[in-house]
Structure formats: structure tokens, C-alpha cells
Amino acid sequence: MSAYAIAHLQEAAPHPEIAEYIDRITATFEPYGGRFLVHGARHEVKEGEWPGHVVVIGFPSLARARAWWDSAEYQEIAPLRSRHVEGDIILVPGVPEDYDPMHTAGAMREALSAR
């Protein structure tokens, strides 16, 4: 099942280390089957506030996303970003191809009726 690394990064002043990080990051996730799904695009806020930037990297599985994050290659370059850009980063599994949200709604109704 696919998985995603999602980053919500705050605005930051341009810095040479950030450019180096961007130059090097692809080589760290490609061996794990990762690829950019969202990077450098302007997002459109429909509710609430979402300042900054969104980055989404897709992986074939959560195990591969974790392996990328924990890899020596990524951990070597991560400080190039984290010293200059604040943000939140999560790893999250996708849903299976046959996912049906009605099952989630049914489980919620069942939990509510058990109260």
C-alpha cells in the first residue's frame, strides 16, 4: 500500500544550504521508490490558514518511507533544511485501492450507538 511523506514548511529566507538540500534530496529517496508528487507548487487554501509550502513525496509503502527517513543519506542532508526552515513533517499510509469510506462511517455510527 502506498505511503506519503508530507511536509508543511514555513516561509524561509533563501539560503545556500536550502538550495543544496533541494539539489540532493531526490537522490536520497529514489532508492526507496520515492518520487515528488507535490513540490514548489502554489497551494490554494479553502478553509483555515496554511502559510508556507507543501511538499508530498510518494513511496510504495510505509516501510520504504520510514527506511528513507531513517537512512544515513537523508539524515546527512536533513540539517541543511532544518537549520533554516521550520515545519511539520509526517509519514502517512495511503488507503488501499478498494477503500470504501462507508465502512469508516459505519464504524463511527456503531461506536456512537454504543455510548
Give me a quick take on this structure:
This is DUF1330 domain-containing protein. This protein has 115 residues and is α+β, with helices and mostly antiparallel strands.
Number of domains: 1
- Let me know the largest β-sheet: 4 strands, antiparallel
Contiguous helical run count: 4
Beta-strand residue fraction: 15-25%
User: Order of helices and strands, N to C?
Assistant: EHEEHHEH
Q: What would you say the CATH architecture is?
A: 2-Layer Sandwich
CATH class: Alpha Beta
Shape: globular
Name the structural class: alpha+beta
Gyration radius (Cα, Å) is 17 Å
The share of residues in helices is 40-55%
- Give the strand order, joined by hyphens, for the main sheet: 2-3-1-4
Q: End-to-end distance, in Å? A: 33 Å
Stated plainly, the CATH topology is called Alpha-Beta Plaits
Q: Roughly what is the average pLDDT, rounded to an integer?
A: 96
What does this structure look like?
The protein has four helices and four strands; from the N terminus they run E-H-E-E-H-H-E-H. The mean pLDDT is 96. The protein is of the alpha+beta class and 115 residues long. A four-stranded antiparallel beta sheet has the order 2-3-1-4. It is globular, with a radius of gyration of 17 Å. It has a single domain (3-113), classed as Alpha-Beta Plaits (2-Layer Sandwich). This is DUF1330 domain-containing protein. It comes from Streptomyces lancefieldiae. Residues 2-95 form the DUF1330 domain.
